[in-house]
Amino acid sequence: ADLTTQFLDLPVKNPVMNAAGVWCSVASQLEALAESAAGAMVTKSCTLQPRDGNPEPRYRVLDGDKPFGSINSMGLPNEGFAYYLRYAQRHDYEEKPLFVSLSGLTLDDNLTMIDSLKDAVTPAILEVNLSCPNVPGKSQIGYDFESMDTLLAEVSSGYQRPFGVKLPPYFDMAHFDEAAEILNRYPLVAFVTCINSIGNALVIDLASETTLIKPKDGFGGLGGDYVLPTALANVNAFYRRCPNKTIIGCGGIKSGREAFMHILAGATLVQIGTSLYEEGPGIFQRVLDELSAIMDEKGYATTEEFRGKLKTL
Ligand SMILES: O=C(O)c1[nH]c(=O)[nH]c(=O)c1I
After folding, report:
1. In the 8-state DSSP scheme, what is residue 207?
2. How confident is the model at residue 67 (pLDDT cuts 50, 70, 90)?
3. Which residue has the higher pLDDT, 287 or 138?
4. Which of 8, 109, 175, 275 would disulfide-bridge 254, Cβ 3.0–4.6 Å?
5. Of all helices (H) and strands (E), which one includes residue 227?
């Protein structure tokens, strides 16, 4: 099958990329993504200043029994905005698009970073993270509709170019409606990435009767198989409610099957997190081959032919 995809006005070799935060914190990882089969890539969400993040253990893969997944409370460790801006200025955009993810600790920090990104005049695509669940004392902007509205207004007037947002999962129709109503008031919000990890889950080790991770009494963001149905719901909910925006799907993708489901639900690109963390950048070619085989089997030549075509009963 032909996996080439149009994202906004950009031709992309294929719809598969990494999820922000996974395999994208330092130059060596970014270079590995650039050399991988991924059709696009995104940098680790960054703050204005470098951050160490939370104490370890702060990431655990859950693969002892089914389902496969992960829990993390990294706490936004990153090299600082200037580091990722430097990478964005030396990235080969002919090879593949680069997204830059920002997660400022304050609105001012976000606006300062956006100003520099705008003046740097790089083709990098801005993904504003509204959903980091792991900074102690910081709640997720995506769950505070008023501050989300304010941030989108400020970023729109500051950046004055199309950008996107990374949303937390929502679990109520009224929340899908309210979030979409806000997003639709900002035409510069060109894309919406659903979902970030399901925040503040708790995984317990039976033998030791202890939490698996250290920060926040063991509460952390859930990824992997656990979140696929919620991810698909959020992709489809915003696909239905935001007809003028592009949806990027993220959550529970570990093979061509889940990638196909995300596209069927309305996603244009799909992001891989937990499975990339565990398998490494070789996963992209595997998922692409699996997706292509499923499309061939079903008789779809391009992703365009089935994107958003989920049937209801
Ligand atoms: O703890 C993190 O660094 C983190 N972890 C996540 O699961 N999602 C996020 O957006 C972030 I910024």
Report:
1. T
2. confident
3. 287
4. 275
5. none
In this structure, the number of other CB atoms found within 10 A of the CB of residue 276 comes to 26
Question: What pairing do the DSSP bridges indicate for beta strands 210-211 and 204-205?
Answer: antiparallel
Two structure tokens written together for 51 = 């951050």
Distance 256 CA to ligand 1 centre (A): 25
Mean pLDDT, rounded, of the chain: 97
The ipTM, to two decimals, is 0.99
* DSSP, residue by residue, 217-264: GGEEEEEEGGGHHHHHHHHHHHHHH-TTSEEEEESS--SHHHHHHHHH
Q: In the annotation, is 242 catalytic? A: no
* Ligand 1 binding pocket includes 132 (Cβ within 6 Å): yes
Q: Can you spell out the DSSP letters for 52-76?
A: --SPSP-EEEE-SSSSPEEEE----
pLDDT for 65 beyond 90: no
Work out the number of other CB atoms within 10 angstroms of the CB of residue 174. 8
DSSP 78: B
Atom of ligand 1 nearest to the CA of 135: 1
Other CB atoms within 10 Å distance of the CB of residue 293: 12
Would the CA dihedral through 113, 118, 119, 124 be positive or negative?
positive
Say yes or no: CB of residue 199 within 6 Å of ligand 1.
Answer: no
Residue among 24, 46, 132, 194 flagged as catalytic: 132
- Could you tell me if the CB of 271 is within 6 A of ligand 1? no
Q: Give the Cα separation of 146 and 34 in Å (integer).
A: 37
Q: pLDDT per residue over 18-55, tens digit each?
A: 999 999 999 999 999 999 999 999 999 999 999 999 99
pTM of the model: 0.98
Q: Would you give the DSSP letter of residue 213?
A: S
What ligand 1 atom has the least distance to the C-alpha of 166? Answer: 10
